[in-house]
Amino acid sequence: MAGNLLVTGCAGFIGFHLAEHLLRAGQPVIGIDNLNQYYDPALKHARLDLLKQHRGFTFLELDLADRAGMKALFERYRFEVVVHLAAQAGVRYSLQNPHAYMDSNLEGFLNVLEGCRHTACRHLLFASSSSVYGGNTKLPFSVHDNVDHPVSLYAATKKANELLAHSYSHLYRIPTTGLRFFTVYGTWYRPDMALYKFADAITGGKPIQLFNNGNMRRDFTYVDDVVEAMVRLIGRAPEGDVNWSGAHPDPGSSKAPWRVYNIGNSRPEELMHVVALLEQGFGRQAEKQLLPMQPGDVLETSADVSDLEREIGFRPQTRIEDGIAKFVAWYRAYHNVDRT
Ligand code: NAD
After folding, report:
1. Which residues does ligand 1 sit against, CB inside 6 Å?
2. Residue 28 within a domain
3. Gap from CA of 253 to ligand 1 centroid (Å)
4. Which residue stretches, if any, does this entry annotate as coiled coil (predicted)?
């Protein structure tokens, strides 16, 4: 296991699951989160309460954009590993509140990079997103594809994170690993995500909204698989060009210790199939409201995970039927939904 390890966004969906997994394995975790109101803070507090039951867990309420606070955090703990998952997430919200994305995803990310730079962090892993593939029509999406055409502000900030990480990796030899997550779902899920909204609507007797008339395919990836991939990657910091040793980077020849992986299931599912599984799980029919395509949305996502498989010997594998069943069971318990 690692020395001091930071998880940013530890009260969030993926950060909570990762922190919990590491703590159970005996790895102490320092977590930060600003507990913002993008979605119900009670859910974030409930996740935190579970993490706080572990003796190895230290929590600090801190905003990524707080430059002095972030500097002090890194100076105090001098992290060996940083897993950066805090961000302003969501594609559609980026149309309404663009500044939140600049503050958290750009300014905040720079503070993480600066912290890593000044404390000689040995591995920075950070959340990117399948949204960087934009309107790509060549499927499956490969990390070797050109991703210079993001179609939402959220995606643009995630692509920018990959570029900024590359520059810091190149300039300061910080090993960085970007994680392009593909529609992660599971227990302790995010209420702003489509599956959760469908669950709310189905249990509340309200119509579900299906954009592009429901004609979409998503590479749904179960959160436990995502955590397993991350845990394996933590111990595999990219090495870059081992011959490069100067204090002044040579832009022509140095190969930065920088990697990006797709973290996806590689089995895109029809949205309508997923709705049918939810209907089955809750034992209720959904009233379906068919709507046009939303700006910034894409028709299909599908991950080529061959790099991941080759390098860590693992690929996400939870079947959608099993993953949805776990989500429904958690949702029922958390919301105290009576069985029908
Ligand atoms: P989440 O919103 O549940 O978690 C993010 C956490 O970060 C939240 O608890 C939030 O309070 C915190 N946060 C946000 N801005 C912050 C700031 N300025 N300072 C400190 N804390 C802040 O989202 P998630 O689903 O757990 O996503 C984790 C990461 O993975 C994000 O970077 C997201 O963009 C990325 N991602 C997620 C998915 C997915 O399907 N869930 C897909 C692609 C990428």
Report:
1. 9, 11-15, 33-36, 44, 63-65, 85-89, 104, 108, 127, 129, 181, 183-184, 190
2. yes
3. 35
4. none
Backbone conformation region of residue 336, classed left if phi is above 0, alpha if psi is from -120 to 50, else beta:
left
pLDDT tens track for 184-240: 999 999 999 999 999 999 999 999 999 998 999 999 999 999 999 999 999 999 987
Crossing angle of helices 41-51 and 13-24, rounded to 10°: 10
> What CATH number has the domain bearing residue 78?
3.40.50.720
Domains: count for the chain: 1
**Residue 118 belongs to some domain of the structure:** yes
The first and second tokens of residue 265, run together, are: 């299931």
pLDDT in tens, 27-50: 999 999 999 999 999 999 999 999
pLDDT in tens, 133-148: 987 878 999 999 989 8
Can you tell me the distance from the alpha carbon of 155 to that of 153, in angstroms, rounded to the nearest whole number?
Answer: 5
Per-residue pLDDT of 74-90, as tens digits, reads 999 999 999 999 999 99
Angle at 238 between CA 232 and CA 241, to 5 degrees: 160
Query: What does DSSP say about strands 269-270 and 217-218: parallel, antiparallel, or unpaired?
Result: antiparallel
CA–CA distances in Å: residue 276 to residues 49, 103, 307, 316: 33, 38, 32, 22
The span from the CA of 101 to the CA of 87, in Å, is 8
Distance from the alpha carbon of residue 110 to the mean position of ligand 1, in angstroms:
16
**Percentage of the chain modeled with pLDDT above 90:** 83
How many C-beta atoms lie closer than 10 Å to residue 174's C-beta?
23
Find the domain containing 47 and state its range.
Answer: 5-190+223-265+302-318
In a domain, 154, yes or no: yes
What is residue 254's predicted lDDT score, i.e. its pLDDT?
52
* Separation of alpha carbons 319 and 128, rounded Å: 23
pLDDT tens-digit profile of 151-181? Answer: 899 999 999 999 999 999 999 999 999 999 9
ipTM: 0.99
Residue 294 has pLDDT above 80, yes or no: yes
